[in-house]
Design a protein that fits this description.
mainly alpha, disordered N terminus, 5 domains, 16 helices
Length: about 400
Amino acid sequence: MAEQDNNAFSGFNIESIENDIAIQLPGSGEPGKTNNDDPEGKSQNKSSTITTGFDFNTKIEIPESPEEAAIINKGASESKENKDIDNKDTGEEDVIIKEDSPLYLHAATLYENGILPTLDLESLKDKPFKEGMQIYLEAQKKYIEDGRNEYLNSLSDRQKEFLEMIELGISEEQAEHQFKIEDSYGKITDEVLADDVEMQKGLIVQNYKLKGISDKKIDIFVKDAETNERLFEEAKDALSDINAYIASQKQSAVDAAKQRQIDADAKEQELQTKIKTTIEGLTEIFPGIPLSAAEKTKLNDYMTKPVEERIINGKKVPIDIITKTRIEDPISFNLRTAYFITQGLYDKNVDLSKFVKKNVTKAAEKLTNKLKEEPTGGSERGVKIEKNDDGGRKEKFIFPKFM
């Protein structure tokens, strides 16, 4: 009890302050000793203390001569170099692929199941991870392309045309309509047309309408052809003109889709270049928080590289991590975005002091309240205010005694 009374902080629950203001106080035991040595946490209150960042249990080797100082410095330098080499050896990109490496085993499994028949497993051995991964990805790409070409070769010319229109971005409904009218007019032969007067008149009317002739003039032309027994000949000419018009419409749709794709690719490339240039020119996004090279690379990847493909409006669309995050929880994404905007976090000269001040003020307030609590134990602690004989006040500060 006497030992506790002599300690001014014995009645002070420092652990509750740790939890409240998120400051982790290091233990004061032996160097390298952790709470794992005390699984039940019985000695936690005895070993936790406030430190100033200096471990008094650490021994410092003081050289007595310049020669000793050089030896000590050389040993420290070699230790650092060895540590850097060890760290480098564990880097994924520098790992040498062996038969028991995860990448080799994965590739071998696919090869044995006929999924990557063109992959040469021997080409993976003794390669750095990055080079081996490139070989694997190229084999995977070739397998997909070979499968697609095999599928295309099994299609008829019309099926290939239809698939090409879909891949160019033409809607399935438009493509189906195009082929439907091609089939309808393509089935009309001279034999069928010669025996059907109404079909002859219909073709002549349709052809004139496509050319923008008024209904009144069309009636005159049809009656004149009928009077002069030219319906069949004019109907054949009309059918030829209509088929040419249908083919022209399809070609125009394909050309427009190709141009849209070219424009989209150019715009995408321009955007990616602009993003990369912008990120490379940044030193920071939030004032006072510098960007590292690794962070710049990750930002560029997040903004330019797709992470998966999804079916949107019947089409496979590659999406980036930002779009994926928005799709998975649009309400939360938009809510956070709206909050960031209201707090000015998208402003170039954003003032972060109010966020830091808010957190510091809250932590300081909790610490102050803890210090104001009445100490327990019945002994005299902390600051004591007393009155002197003159009616004034004097302060008596009781310094804590160290164990």
